[in-house]
Amino acid sequence: MLQFPSRTRTTVRSIVGKEDTACAIGTDDRSSSSRASTGADQPRADTRRPKRVKRGPNPIGVIMPSLALPKELSGYRPQDVGLVTHAAIAILAPALPGLDPVTLPERVLDITGALVNGDNHNRRRVLMLTAAGHVCTYLRRFAPTAPWELLGCEFDTGGGRTDVAWRHTETGVVFFDEIKTHNRSISQISDRVIAQANRQAVGGMEQFGDLFAGVRILPFGALHLVTLAHPASKRILLSPTQAEPLRQSDASTHGSSS
Q1: Which helix (H) or strand (E) holds 197?
Q2: Is the pTM here over 0.85, yes or no?
């Protein structure tokens, strides 16, 4: 059980249940380590204790069997937006079918606000609102509805972890979602992201065979480039809806973009 800062204890407990044990949140703990001291800023001998980073008054519990979030998510690092976004999605996705769409944005703000900490109010606010916007975009626009069901968060594909995995309850078809939270405008998906998705797709094929549909790449800075990657076929541009998460775009297939 990991502890994160929060403004309220009951909000998260009401949406995190036993089924959340299948969800983990992947991060890089190395990025949260402190810088080496030069000795010039060492506290004096009479200093009782170092100044603590401002956090919420109450902790919340999130069940994560493997990887943990860094101790501080303050908005000083570029990756903080992605970490908070993926953490909030992992917390909310298992309970999504029972959440009220009208109150969902407020719930998302509660979760992202609980995860953000640090001593700079403006940075915390920007981080919270940016991540909350990404989470709402995913849950209200891209997370598929029934008969699709959540297979797992931070799902181990055998070729690396993918953000979210979904399965069709009637046909058994499976696809993965790889979410990229950068806001900058791009004209094509990078080779690095394509290579990552292809590794995950190979793992998906090994686990699910012909039932594996591919890896859906969701670049939040360029949602017109939502792409389905599959190593056995050309990459396909998508125009997904929640009812049809793998609906092809009118632009059809494209095999040369990167």
Answers
A1: helix 191-208
A2: no
Identify whether the C-beta of residue 23 lies closer than 8 Å to the C-beta of residue 154: yes
Per DSSP, the residues of 33-46 read PPPPP-STTPPPTT
Q: Which amino acid is residue 257, in one-letter code?
A: S
Alpha-carbon radius of gyration of the chain: 20
Tell me the pLDDT band of 252, cut-offs 50, 70 and 90: low
CA distance 176 to 155: 8
Residue 28 has pLDDT above 70, yes or no: no
Structure tokens at 182: 């950068």
Confidence tier at 78 by pLDDT (50, 70, 90)? confident
Distance CA 88, CA 84 (A): 6
Query: Strands, E, within 30-144: which ranges?
Result: 58-62
Alpha-carbon distance of 214 to 229, in angstroms, equals: 5
